[in-house]
């Protein structure tokens, strides 16, 4: 009873709280990192060095007036932010945050669910998130959101294909679809999969930038282009949900990249015995460090590159990334069979 | 016991949303109810132990095909065509007749399958759970290779047809 209901519930509460707090501080981190790259300081006033800025932001979004345009489709307008947010959050159910730990005499695995098709579950759930964007734009009954929504969803479904193909080559290398199985496969192989599948890693990184609507692929929400894209007509808490979903998506994608290519919760060189002193760092700490490395990479890229025009964006997705990803699958399969 | 509860709850939800698909006034709502329907069907697959199929159902059907349906439905502003001289009662009688016909057919099939059941070893049972993906893969690429290739050809034909219909004159 306890193992079946209470522990998973506690894990869910823990993970959700962690994700929400991380998202809050990720927003602050983004502003700070972008500021420092641009030779300025970012938020400094609210709390020492702006540490309490997210609290101020959350309060502001909570108490802001909720303006609903007149002729919107009420049900869909209300549902759209929820449809965007929920998939981002439930994707965390299969991500392995660490190895097994012993607490109060019980061995607890640091993942909420270990399903045998874990990786495919993450991809499937991400493809449901596209609905929220389309519906948000359509339900707003306004030109710019509709255009932004169509562009964004076309971009998302295009890059989803390339990203899924790279995941196929990783699955071919590892031989399993389960996320915990993938970490174990890297432990058995003795090397992170980024060294076996570098092309797949790079393609997945670029495709993830496009999947999360981040620069250089953020035309659908660029302020100068489409006001604010599909979330123009949303204010207050509804906008907060869209915002939350975008950053939660970023965290999901970084976690998946860590788990697939960089050893998940394994310490560096897990098979080298004399580096065993590194084991005092808990496994979930390694996972967090690697994930934050990728999140920092996302923020860094945002502050560095100009954005792609829409036709360039689509061209890269279909004519460059997809053929590369498919070729990668073929080569991986061939190497796996021959060696 | 839990199996039965899950099955009946899911069935009620699937059928309910199925009715909602055809009775919704707004076509976009119709498509959305269809998506929810597909998600519940995926849940039904999970109760049967076919997790791979469930996730593929969400990924391909709910997350791919219906998205494209949604694009079309959203951009084509459909209005209920006004049909003059539409006889409501005749349509209802036709609908009921068809429904009764389908019911008779389903009952006949059920009775026949109860009278001559499949041999006991036909369904894999427990071993399906762990080796889902491998078994589907093996079956698809060895026993059912020809249907697989034929399906790929069909998709290719559909794609070529769509591109030809939508291309700009050079």
Can you walk me through this structure?
The complex is a heterodimer of chains A (339) and B (170). By secondary structure, chain A is mostly helical. Chain A has one domain. Chain A is 67% helix and 3% strand. Chain A has helices at residues 2-37, 53-63, 74-90, 118-139, 143-174, 179-189, 193-196, 198-211, 223-226, 236-261, 283-304, 310-338, and strands at 98-103, 106-110. Chain A has a two-stranded antiparallel sheet with strand order 1-2. In chain A, a hairpin with a 2-residue loop joins strand 1 and strand 2 (106-110). In chain A, helix 1 (2-37) crosses helix 10 (236-261) and helix 2 (53-63) crosses helix 10. The longest helix of chain A is centred in the N-terminal third of the chain and has 36 residues, at 2-37. The model of chain A has no long low-confidence stretch (mean pLDDT 88). Chain B has a domain at 1-79: NADH-ubiquinone/plastoquinone oxidoreductase chain 6, subunit NuoJ (Four Helix Bundle (Hemerythrin (Met), subunit A)). By secondary structure, chain B is mostly helical. In chain B, 14% of the residues are buried. The longest helix of chain B has 28 residues, at 88-115. In chain B, helix 1 (2-23) packs antiparallel against helix 2 and helix 2 (27-47) runs antiparallel to helix 3. The interface between A and B is medium-sized, with 22 and 23 residues.
């Amino acid at each position: 009873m306890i193992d079946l209901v209470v522990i998973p519930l506690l894990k869910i509460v823990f993970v959700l709280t962690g994700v929400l707090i991380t998202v809050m501080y990720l927003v602050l981190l983004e502003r700070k990192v972008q500021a420092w790259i641009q030779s300025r300081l970012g938020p400094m006033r609210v709390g020492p060095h702006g540490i309490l800025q997210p609290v101020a932001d959350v309060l502001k979004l909570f108490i802001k007036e909720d303006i609903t345009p007149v002729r919107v489709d009420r049900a869909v307008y209300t549902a759209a932010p929820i449809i965007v947010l929920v998939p981002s959050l439930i994707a965390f159910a299969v991500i392995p945050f660490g190895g097994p730990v012993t607490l109060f005499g019980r061995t607890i695995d640091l993942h909420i669910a270990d399903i045998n098709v874990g990786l495919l579950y993450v991809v499937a759930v991400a493809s449901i998130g596209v609905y929220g964007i389309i519906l948000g734009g359509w339900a707003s009954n306004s030109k710019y959101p509709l255009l932004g929504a169509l562009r964004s969803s076309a971009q998302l479904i295009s890059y989803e294909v390339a990203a899924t193909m790279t995941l196929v080559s990783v699955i071919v290398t590892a031989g399993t679809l389960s996320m915990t199985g993938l970490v174990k496969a890297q432990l058995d192989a003795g090397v992170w999969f980024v060294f076996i599948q570098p092309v797949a890693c790079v393609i997945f990184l670029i495709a993830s930038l496009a999947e999360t609507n981040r620069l250089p692929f953020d035309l659908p929400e660029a302020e100068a282009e489409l006001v604010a894209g599909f979330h123009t007509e949303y204010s207050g808490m509804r906008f907060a949900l869209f915002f939350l979903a975008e950053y939660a998506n970023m965290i999901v994608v970084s976690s998946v990249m860590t788990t697939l290519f960089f050893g998940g919760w394994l310490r560096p060189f897990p098979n080298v015995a004399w580096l065993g002193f590194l084991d005092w760092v808990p496994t979930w700490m390694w996972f967090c460090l690697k994930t934050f490395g990728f999140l920092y990479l996302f923020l860094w890229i945002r502050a560095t590159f100009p954005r792609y025009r829409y036709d360039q964006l689509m061209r890269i997705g279909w004519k460059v990334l997809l053929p590369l990803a498919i070729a990668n699958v073929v080569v991986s399969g061939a190497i796996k069979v021959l060696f | 016991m839990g199996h039965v509860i899950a099955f009946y709850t899911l069935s009620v939800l699937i059928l309910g949303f199925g009715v909602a698909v055809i009775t919704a006034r707004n076509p976009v709502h119709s498509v959305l109810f269809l998506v929810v329907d597909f998600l519940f069907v995926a849940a039904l697959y999970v109760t049967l132990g076919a997790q791979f199929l469930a996730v593929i159902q969400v990924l391909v059907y709910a997350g791919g095909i219906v998205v494209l349906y949604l694009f079309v439905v959203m951009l084509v502003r459909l209005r209920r065509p006004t049909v003059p001289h539409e006889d409501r009662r005749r349509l209802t009688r036709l609908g009921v007749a068809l429904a009764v016909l389908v019911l008779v057919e389903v009952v006949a099939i059920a009775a026949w399958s109860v009278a001559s059941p499949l041999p006991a070893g036909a369904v894999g049972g427990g071993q399906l759970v762990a080796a889902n993906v491998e078994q589907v893969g093996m079956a698809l690429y060895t026993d059912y290779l020809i249907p697989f290739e034929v399906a790929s050809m069909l998709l290719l034909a559909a794609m070529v047809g769509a591109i030809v219909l939508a291309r700009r004159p050079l």
